[in-house]
Sequence to fold (317 residues):
Amino acid sequence: MRYQLKQIQCRPWTLSYLSVKLIESHYENNYGGALRRLNAITEQLGSLDFASTPGHVLNGLKREELVALNSTLLHELYFASMGGDGQPTKGMTEILARDFGSLDRWRAEFTAMGYALGGGSGWVLLTYLPRDGRLINQYAAEHSQAVASGVPILALDMYEHAYHIDFGANAKAYVDTFLRNVDWPALQVRYEDAAKVPGPRLLEQPEFADAPGIGVEEVRAMMAAGTPVQVIDVRPRAAISRLQDIAEGAQWRDPEQLQQWMGELSKSEPVIVYCAYGYHVGCKTAIKLREAGFDAKYMNSGHSGWKAVGAPVRMNA
Ligand SMILES: [Fe+2]
Fold:
């Protein structure tokens, strides 16, 4: 395949702050250069015999492919980021306040990141993260290192070629100029598109649809707050004798002996059971407890999840 050139979107004749000379040089030499490199690398990869290509040759080409591809993508976003009047829309003001505390707080971080790259190089990006449904500011050095699954919606190019013709070494003046030049209505549209990207699918266990789950963080918060709750570790006997630690505040009970210990539990306080990873044993036990009239849930991710978030454990001597 061949990657296609995208039309410059910032309409240089509407720019009041950056010179046409700078924008044209940037678009033709740096964006165009990345695109030409990308197509040359793609062609080379297309004709490789992978079985006989040395690892270091393939490594180099794939690394350069990533750099060139990201450089074209980010330059397209950069040019599309400018050409406005720098006045934040009401919608973006609210979204940035939601994710950063306030518009000013977002701007302070984004600007400081740009300043900090003066004399260095890289990108400052405002990126939407579908998993968490929020925006973050991030660096993307070497045209790469972008957040996996992130959708960048605003790009500030901090390579010297982006400002040297107009600003010399005065990177701060360039960053301020960029922000006065942001096309906010276009930014908002890109946010709205990005926000439609769904997060990764959660694990579904349709066979245990009757058993409600609860997250480890929620259980931890309930226990820390002293909320009345009975937390039962129901890992099989073989697992608990091998792994001696157990969630602090939990009691171990043998899932095979459920009928014998069920009567010790109170029906007036919720019961949370967990197994090793939050699959069968925990879910089945929760279902049986619910059938017996207990307000029971199973803990998602189980004992492993509890440890993964750094929640307290004790030795089950
Ligand atoms: Fe650039």
User: Anything to note?
Assistant: The beta strands are 123-129, 134-140, 151-157, 213-214, 230-233, 245-247, 251-252, 271-274, 296-299, 313-315. The chain is about 45% helix and 15% strand. The chain has a mean pLDDT of 93.
